[in-house]
Amino acid sequence: MSTSNTPFDSIRNDDDVRAGTEELAERDGKLGALARITLAIADGQEPNPDDCEEAGLETLPKLARGEE
User: What's the CA gap between 26 and 32, in Å, rounded?
Assistant: First the structure.
């Protein structure tokens, strides 16, 4: 079993990294949408479909649910 950390672990466990991601999530446009998606995934939640569309990742919610 691997014990290596992922970027999502840093967002969950490092207050500075989380704060920076939350700051980016307040922005409009693609960058803000990507930050909000990243926070949702790090928190074990499904990303907002509107954010996925803004970021050009419309199929991400379906992939997360295991749909094709």
Answer: 6
| pTM given for the model | 0.77
* 44 vs 31: CA distance, rounded Å: 20
Backbone angles phi, psi at 50, to 5 degrees: -65, -40
3-state secondary structure (DSSP) of residue 50: helix
DSSP string, 13-28: H-HHHHHHHHHHHTS-
Task: Report CA dihedral (27, 55, 34, 38) to the nearest 10 degrees.
Answer: 140
Quick one: CA torsion of 48, 18, 44, 61, rounded to 10 degrees? 30
pLDDT in tens, 1-59: 455 677 778 888 888 889 999 999 999 999 999 999 999 988 989 899 999 999 988 87
